[in-house]
């Protein structure tokens, strides 16, 4: 590949999913003089919602909180299908002019910070032309999420090569997979599995079995929010949306706090709800009563009890057991039972890949994320002019992302107004712990490679949207930890 200097920009956003589009929209509207581009490795925008195409893909949060604060969700369904979410994201990008800034087929390979120049040099491979292009930018914004989009997680299963049927991972669902009349075993019990099972049954599968090692908390919710659909008629679209969003934020916070404070009561509530939705005599305690407390792992929401209705209709079943090995005809369990299958779906989770796998260095020193502490959940200690966005794990992802994108734009504007070139957060002198305090498998497998968090603001990873609104939206961009400087000065300016 030939290397050419392509262009200089103020901000380079990596990723055109929900975080990248959100960051770009705030720059477009709140900082119109800032030059920026959004780099997307794939051929289309939408991130997760464009790449993941498995049957039934949908949100597991209501769209009144999963959607952007500035863009009302107007569909009558609160729990939305993937195609509707994708259309919403692309409509948002078009309305804000963000789509004109997206460069497709641009895969970021490396990013190098020069303290002397106060610039990031970002090398990019273009899949459409075969060229390598270079950007020099003031700010780098990682909107890549934290999943490895190239490969999902699949445990090593003994005898897998002996299975004569088809094995697929939801992350790479074959477009031509014909499952009509087939016996399907879905390995896993998380959000992807509970989404797939009713969709596969409705799509004509002969029978679907959810094979899980450990149960997950599953809570049915109505797919339509009657109050949300009524409020816009009374108060108008924008005000009605804002009120619904506030209501649902409160409900999410209430459910989470109740789960942490009164885990046994919430466990009983979920169990009793499940028992009422399942056939008489169904073994709820074996299949839907986990050995851990609610919200130790994320609760799975099922719209209109679709999973339970599918089980009740006899089109799906649940088996809770450990896998011994794959066989020619299916899966042998440690109990000695064999589950026969034509198709096995490994809904076994994801791998983590921070910042899209970009090779990042500072003056030639490679970035090791675990050596740094997250500042406000959007910067890393000691790393100049680098921001990222990670949403909530216990509530709608976009609630946190929206606040971070808004705050990032304020930070860029502050630096412009004061002619600063460099912004860096000094490492705190405090006890630190894992960035994500969450027992999900993908988190535990990657805990050693992730940044750290502190035990007090602005270094703690708040789980409260209300607290984050105070800190990130209404709080100043200045504090004792954030330092600003100019490259033509010998001194560092402390805010």
UniProtKB/TrEMBL annotation:
InterPro entries: FAD-binding_MO, FAD/NAD-bd_sf, Flavin_mOase-like
Keyword Aminoacyl-tRNA synthetase set for record: no
Cofactor(s) the protein needs: FAD
Pfam family for this entry, one: Thi4
Molecular function via GO: flavin adenine dinucleotide binding; N,N-dimethylaniline monooxygenase activity; NADP binding
This protein's UniProt keywords: FAD, Flavoprotein, Monooxygenase, NADP, Oxidoreductase
Family from the record: Belongs to the FAD-binding monooxygenase family.
PANTHER family xref list: MONOOXYGENASE, PUTATIVE (AFU_ORTHOLOGUE AFUA_8G02570)-RELATED
Name of the protein in question: Predicted flavoprotein CzcO associated with the cation diffusion facilitator CzcD
